[in-house]
Design a protein that fits this description.
This protein is mainly alpha-helical and about 70 residues long. It is built from 2 helices and no strands. About 50% of the residues lie in helices and about 0% in strands.
């Protein structure tokens, strides 16, 4: 039995006898939502802009309602 192949030790965490299996790699998520692809600061800036627009719309609605009640 001099023809045996020595396998490297399990530095990558593979158990004995599984040298034939490929190493798994992290999944590339191509179907992520836009929120997960953008940076945190960009998302917060977008949220602040949206909140400012909502506040302005609410103020305009309130002014219109006040005008109507006079």
């Amino acid at each position: 039995m001099a023809d045996t192949i020595s396998l490297p030790s399990s530095a990558a965490g593979r158990a004995s006898g599984k040298g034939w299996k490929d190493q798994k790699t992290p999944t590339v998520r191509s179907q992520q939502s836009e929120g997960h692809k953008t940076k945190w600061q960009e998302r917060m800036n977008k949220t602040k802009k949206e909140l400012a627009v909502k506040k302005l719309q609410q103020e305009l609605r309130q002014e219109k309602e006040d005008e109507r009640r006079r």
